[in-house]
Amino acid sequence: MSKEKKSFLIVGLGRFGSSLCEKLVGLGQSVIGVDQLAGPVSEMSDKIDVAAQLDVTDESALTKIGAKEVDIAIVTIGSSLENSVLCTSILVDLQVPLVVARANTALHAKILARVGAHRIVFPEWDMGHKIAENLVYPWYSGFSKIDGGDFCFGKMRPLPEMIGRTIAELKFSQRYKVIVILIEHEGKQESPSPTRAFLETDGIWVMGHRSDMDRLLNKSSLDGI
Question: Do 19 and 98 fall into the same domain?
Answer without folding.
Answer: yes
